[in-house]
Write a structure and sequence with these properties.
With 250 residues, the protein is α+β, with helices and mostly antiparallel strands. It has two domains: 72 residues; 164 residues, Glutaredoxin (3-Layer(aba) Sandwich), CATH 3.40.30. It is built from twelve helices and five strands.
């Protein structure tokens, strides 16, 4: 539809120029005179300018969407099928990917809804991408959460760290102990080279996708920046009504 509008805009501008030429008759005239007649026509019909601008914006948005889709498809495997990531509902047919930081206030705001969606839709996979952007305790929390010990308690770790308002080394260790893990062992395991490499790979993936903040959600070809959980739910619904045709849960 947008492509059609772009063609319509071109045709409309062509008609404008044709009308302007018609006003001049068969007389030979200068470029200045031609420009003045076109300008006079546009002043008399401002709606033509508004329509043209709208069509240009629609075309730009379409090109942006196409570019984003191509970019997401290029990195689809790294986004959805990295075996190193923690995944909730691994058997789901629709995939939601979240890039997040455990000290990000907006991530904390969206976390309860993320957990609710996971419980509500067991046929939707949730892939968790640790993307610490605040350094310090953010890095430590991400490294700890990516250890085999913590991944075994994935959603419990996610809930505990996201609920903590002042996440630091002491609170991280306290939550680990509360969940029955040995803080010293887990913190040490979090410093392993393979975990640091995983974090670096995730950072590069975020950069490739032009993700500059957290949270960021990806569902199919939709990239939703920020804690817009209404948009996340809508994207899941659209995926259900798409090729997968998964009936909604009641």
């Amino acid at each position: 539809m947008h492509v059609y509008q772009g063609h319509h805009m071109t045709s409309r501008l062509a008609l404008i120029l044709t009308a302007a030429v018609g006003l001049m008759g068969c007389q030979k005239t200068s470029d200045q005179a031609f420009g003045e007649r076109v300008h006079a026509y546009l002043r008399a019909h401002p709606e033509v300018i508004a329509e043209s601008l709208q069509n240009l914006q629609a075309k730009a948005q379409l090109e942006k969407a196409r570019s984003a889709t191509a970019l997401l498809n290029t990195h689809r495997k790294a986004l959805e099928q990295d075996p190193r990531d923690f995944v909730a509902n691994p058997g789901g047919k629709i995939t939601v990917v979240e890039f997040y930081d455990y000290r990000c206030g907006y991530c904390k705001l969206s976390a309860p809804e993320v957990l609710k969606l996971i419980a509500e839709f067991p046929d939707v996979r949730f892939v968790f991408k640790n993307f610490p952007i605040f350094g310090g305790a953010s890095n430590l929390a991400a490294q700890v959460a990516m250890t085999p010990q913590a991944k075994a308690k994935g959603l419990e770790i996610y809930r505990a760290f996201m609920t903590e308002k002042a996440l630091d080394e002491a609170t991280i260790e306290r939550h680990l102990a509360t969940l029955g893990l040995n803080p010293t062992e887990v913190v040490t395991a979090g410093g392993a080279p393979e975990i640091r490499q995983h974090l670096e790979d995730t950072r590069r993936l975020a950069e490739a996708l032009k993700i500059e903040g957290t949270p960021a959600f990806i569902i199919g070809n939709a990239l939703i920046p920020g804690a817009d959980m209404t948009a996340v739910r809508q994207a899941i619904a659209e995926a259900r009504n798409g090729p997968l045709k998964i009936p909604p849960r009641i």
